[in-house]
Amino acid sequence: MSLLKLVGVLLDYPQDELWQHGDELLDAAADPMLSGERRQQLVDFTRELLALEPLTAQDRWLAMFDRGRAMSLLLFEHIHGESRDRGQAMVDLIEAYRKNGFELSAKELPDYLPLLLEYLDRRPQAEARDWLHHVSHIVGLLAARAGERNSPYAVLFEILVEYADGKLDLGALRQRASEEPRDDTPEMMDRLWEEEAVRFGAEAPGDDCSPPTRSPARPAATRQVQP
Fold first, then answer.
1. Where is this chain compositionally biased, Low complexity type (predicted)?
2. pTM across the whole model
3. Distance CA 33, CA 216 (A)
4. In the prediction, which pLDDT does 224 show?
């Protein structure tokens, strides 16, 4: 299992099948292309995830990625929000997948980061790095926000930034993340749902990828761990 495939599997909603492939995941986490420190961090993350009960791991994932929008794994959420531009971007991305023989099921959203990583795993390394470089500002901000929330998932985003040779100041992004209002608190979630009931039209995020004010729909969490 390649590094991109592994990170995608670990970022995805933890299906029960994950625990059936524990040894394979740990072997892949010891990737020699990583620095010694990063390799150990990835192995530690994988061991810690596998040590959890599936329901506990799933609850942790939902708390991290399914409350509010700041940590959404749907990349176009951070670029287009619910604007019409997002629809065209989705069509273009699906076309890119199909052009290279990568078909999606009807329920899969093409901008879901674990899915994109599965696709890039099948592409030449230079192409995969270029794709990730173009979204590294989003991935870097996700890394910063995860770090600010003391989430172990932060290391996965940091590895992706480094894989893409992203020249990002993660310290500055972490400072910015510390100043953002949290959108995953019960109070904020209640407010967002109240606003959702009366808002008409679409609201896109700013160019700086600050958290939009509407909560995302959950992507279909049906992918399975495969060698």
1. 210-227
2. 0.78
3. 35
4. 45
